[in-house]
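To: structure desk
From: M.T.
Subject: fold request, one chain
Message: Could you run this one when you get a chance? Sequence is below, nothing fancy, just the single chain.
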Amino acid sequence: MSALKVENVSKIFPAANKSAAVQALQNVSLDVNTNEFVSILGHSGCGKTTLLNLIAGFEKPSSGRIECAGKEVKEPGAERAMVFQDYALFPWLTVRDNIAFGLNLKKMDSGLINQKVEHFANLVGLGAFVESYPHQLSGGMRQRVSIARALAVDPTVLLMDEPFAALDAQNRAMMQQEMIRILAEESKTVVLVTHSIEESINLSDVIIVMTRRPGRVKEIIRVPEPRRMVEDTPSYLEVRKKIRDLISDEHDLSDIA
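Reply: Done. Structure tokens follow.
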């Protein structure tokens, strides 16, 4: 069953001088199934984040249509929750109140809010830190709070914009393993934007490789053993080489991890 449909979506950012207008995306179509983890991979400037912002409802497409849970996306909505690279936590709120933020907006019963906060804080391993403030947490812990806050509102689709890019290599690898564990406990449809080939292979069911601007879907790759691929094995190296070759065709590997 489809959780998200993107149909022939293009995005042009206008300018006062029409010749300076930028076409970020051109005729992008994709279909994301329920509980599928999809990574979008490509060079800087290929429109990955623009596509995620269109799905989130932060921007409107110049043409085409986006549907989530069978409804056209026209604005932000609780069925699409975003996890940002820079955490986007409220520094004046505790971990508890950050996780509860979206639940309070939905005017849920306070008892149910407390139950959900406890569940998702424990899910991301922060049950002992619910009264802490963001400045008291490490970068990885702050990103876990951001993930818990997004999951707490029970979105149809979880959107992730390079959520681990600001972390060092060790913490990034740890957070990838944490995502695998979390998604094993909380089935969820995820769309991830990343620069990292390895991250996309480690986490995804499906990898979408984009062309350079204007971004188009170059190829859709299904990972043979989602979240069970072992690095440096022949099957892993084959998928990795295929992705690198696709990106190499775009002439520059300098911004791909």
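Reply (cont.): The beta strands are 2-13, 22-33, 37-41, 63-68, 71-72, 80-83, 157-161, 189-194, 206-210, 217-222. Let me know if you need anything else for the meeting.
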